[in-house]
Amino acid sequence: MVRRPAVVQPMLAAGDGDLVVVAAPAGYGKTIATALWDEADEREFAWVRLDHLDDDPVHLLLHIATAMESLAGIDRGLLAYLRGPGRAPNTHLVPAIVQALETYGPLVIVLDDAHELCAPDTIDTLHALIHAAPASTTVALLGRCSPPLDLARRRLQRRVVQLGIDELRFGCVEAAAALEAVSGPCDDATASAVIDQCEGWAAGVILAGMALGGGAAVETVTGRHNLVVDYLVEEVLERLDDGISSFLVESSVLDRFNAELLDAVLERDDSAAMLTELSSSGNLFLISLDQHRVWYRYHRLFGDVLRTRLRGAPTRLRELATRAADVLECRGDTDGALLQALAASDRARAASLVGREAVRLGFDGRAGVLARRLSWLDKQTFAEYPDAAVAHAWLGVTTGDADLIQRSLVQAHRADRGQSMADGTPSVKVAAALVSSLVGVGGVHDVIRHADVVRAAGDNLVNPWWGAATVMKGTAEAMLGNASRARTLLESALPVTDDLPGFQAAALAHLALLDLAAGDDDGAAERSVAARTLADKYDLCDVVPMLVVYAVSAVMAARVGDLAGSREAICATEKLLDRLGHLAARTALLGHGLLAWTAVVIHDSDLLSKHLDAADRARLREPDAVALTQRVEQVRAMAAGSCRPLTAAELRVLPYLATHFSLQRIAEELVVGRETAKSQATSIYRKLGVASRAGAVAEARRLGLLSN
After folding, report:
1. Model confidence over 324-358: pLDDT tens digits?
2. Domains of the chain, start order
3. Which terminus of the chain is more exposed, N or C, with fewer CB under 10 A?
4. Backbone angles phi, psi at 161, to 5 degrees
């Protein structure tokens, strides 16, 4: 027996005619908790174990009197009086019991299995007894549900103590004690796993302990384990009529449900009434998910038992799961529809559901959702259905997994049956080309070739990926040095990539670089901020193709003296470069070149050396990206002629030197003294090797420390 002081304490506090109600499904320890109360309380306890025969006023009162008569001090003639003929329960028998209680003193009457009382006249008699009982008597009702007594007034008067599932549920300490008593000591991880699986259900914890003691692994103790199944079948399912049992089993096809959803899936019109009946009956593990009792689910172990029974009728399971997939898909619940398709063994539909949103999930910050859905599919599905294989490839793109990309595209081509894809892509060839345009194994020209395959499938009105492919072609043209062509492509893609924030962010970042090269510093800053805002909004910091966004952000932050922002963007870019590995040399060359540029601006020689060396290695694998190579050489030249690094305070002063502000005005703007501002300006001249304010501005712009 597990000691439960937190449960017993409110029971001990019950007195002065209070009513105690303990209501929970089978196995939550209602009787044991009350026995612990009995053990700790000085009062006498009269226990009455009810059954269906007690659902009669006279029989109920006789049963209560029998329990009372066993206690010393109770009038032995009470039982004989109650058995007399022609005596009305409420007007004669109840007063007789109340009179006996008044003479006895403090007493607790425990009515166990009170859910057996349903008849209206029986409930009236019970209500009359509770209402008339003296203050020295406490009545405790234990059951799977509370009898329909009017408790509102007692609640207002604070004369009722109610315990339910939440109060009776085992905590970690109690579960560990129970497990130790049944199967010996266990570690915290095992106890936590059992608690999670059993959701604090006391009987479940005990059964799990028995299974663990028999050598079972903790992860196998589910609603499919024999001990759990036997208990729930005997204590719950076998006590139900066929109609309710069938409803329970068939409704378990859904993990969570409401009446409307059940009506649609089960093709019935009484689900609301069934849920109300089940919820009020108290003998089922039906858990309400909201205060209004609209949405429900089954206790995890109970749901496992029900689904095991449903799997025993495979034809009916496929029928229900298929209908559930239809309904959930129409409601926009792709995860739910996918799980139902798998339950119906419909691999084609499962692959279609995964493939339909794969690109968008990867490029709007939900790659984790894509990974989860893919994890539900088996190897056969990837091998037989191109939608699943291409979706797997997109996960590889977002994570920089070259092996996964290559393997998945091979599978997609092998499984190609000449049909269009679930996401609207006209063919496997076009879908693979879009993936390949991001990877560009053959170099920059390979990117353009694959992007043109996608663009040739139709414009944005008929082809969902025209904008994405146009972005990829535009970035490749920029790397080749075709600035005008690149700008046209990238700007034409912006209006049609609103639903692909990752591609739009990449387009904006590349346009920012084109603006910088053209001397439009304001335009570059605006587009860089817009790109970074998108990446941050959709949490794309782990998506490898977003490397350009963070690299450009690092450069722009450094150029305006935001050292903290620049360092943060550098860290994000380096993280993505590590994940990129050897997947795309052009992307590596772009990222390392931009970080080297950033290093020159912030005067970090170690960072500069690291990324110049990496850029040199990358350009050997991407010789056609002449614009990227030229940028690396420009950075190298800047580094060769760079000055001593400016301090953070000097970098804050520097932008003001390019204005018409006097030293006094600059000092006021920076909230420092005039002499401090003057000293910092003089130090800037010395470090830049100039003699005037105009010379400092010109040299700072040449080195990229100031925008033009």
Report:
1. 999 999 999 999 999 999 999 999 999 999 999 99
2. 5-168 (3.40.50.300), 172-221 (no CATH), 235-345 (1.10.10.10), 481-640 (1.25.40), 648-702 (1.10.10.10)
3. N
4. -110, 120
